[in-house]
Amino acid sequence: MREIVFDTETTGMDPAKGDRVVEIGCIELENHIPTGRTYHQYINPECDVPAEVVAVHGLTNEILKDEPTFGEIVGDFLDFIGDDAKLVAHNASFDMKFINAEIKTYGFPKIDDKRVIDTLMIARRKFPGSPASLDALCRRFHIDNTSRTLHGALLDSELLAEVYLELLGGRQRGLDMGGDKKSSAQEKIVKVERVYREARIFKISDDEQAAHDAMLDDLKNPIWKEGGDF
């Protein structure tokens, strides 16, 4: 099963108001395992990037002016995601409205919603009432996101791929079907000599013995009382 974990960065919040995609990052999974194939592209939005948005992802007009337009990369992007791979994104409705607006501009049909998996919705169902941002989920699953000082589509996709696997139940790290090969953890096992120690005998008081005998008298044929049936 092929899946594409992806993220976008944009010039704003609404493509209907003229906002455009400025970066796409994709990670390919095969049966939930990263294959090493990625797609990453900065894009010239052919419009100004507001200062408040630059503060989020750091992509200025100057940085993007020599990058290709979406029309120049749309074919490569669609080839990478293919026709039937599931598309995994965090708050997927945001990314998909931009992707669909962009590809529609160049005559391509809308991507079917049935292909889309939203990790934000999965996290909210799994952990109701808890923070469900990408950073919060990285903290929950002990995923190192210290390099995420700014939003970046490829880095966010890499982090999301790890989060997605954890939301599915977690990868069985160290599971090896390769026969006798030992894991690094197994190689570090140290055999410890256990010193035998005689069992300790605890004496009880007369009052405790009397209370115990009285309890046994209330039981029908207790097997641990002298003369009981076994």
Explained architecture:
By secondary structure, the chain is of the alpha/beta class. It has one domain (2-167): Nucleotidyltransferase, domain 5. 36% of the residues lie in helices and 16% in strands. Strands 3-2-1-4-5 form a 5-stranded mixed β-sheet, sandwiched between helices. A hairpin with a 2-residue loop joins strand 2 (21-30) and strand 3. The longest helix is centred in the C-terminal third of the chain and has 15 residues, at 153-167.
Keywords:
single chain, 230 residues, alpha/beta, Nucleotidyltransferase, domain 5, five-stranded mixed beta sheet, 9 helices, 16% strand
In short:
With about 230 residues, the chain is of the alpha/beta class. The chain contains 9 helices and 5 strands, in the order E-E-E-H-H-H-E-H-E-H-H-H-H-H.
Large-scale geometry? elongated
Distance between the termini: 59 Å
CATH class: Alpha Beta
**What is the strand content?**
15-25%
Task: Give the number of DSSP strands.
Answer: 5
Secondary-structure element sequence? EEEHHHEHEHHHHH
Average pLDDT reading: 85
Count of domain modules: 1
Total helical segments: 9
Radius of gyration: 30 Å
Secondary structure: helix percent: 25-40%
What's the CATH architecture?
Answer: 2-Layer Sandwich
Could you list the spans in which at least 5 consecutive residues all have pLDDT below 50? 172-192
By secondary-structure content and strand pairing, the structural class works out as alpha/beta
Using the coordinates shown, work out and report the CATH topology: Nucleotidyltransferase, domain 5
Spatial arrangement of strands, main beta sheet? 3-2-1-4-5
Find the CATH superfamily.
Ribonuclease H-like superfamily/Ribonuclease H
Q: Tell me about the largest β-sheet.
A: 5 strands, mixed
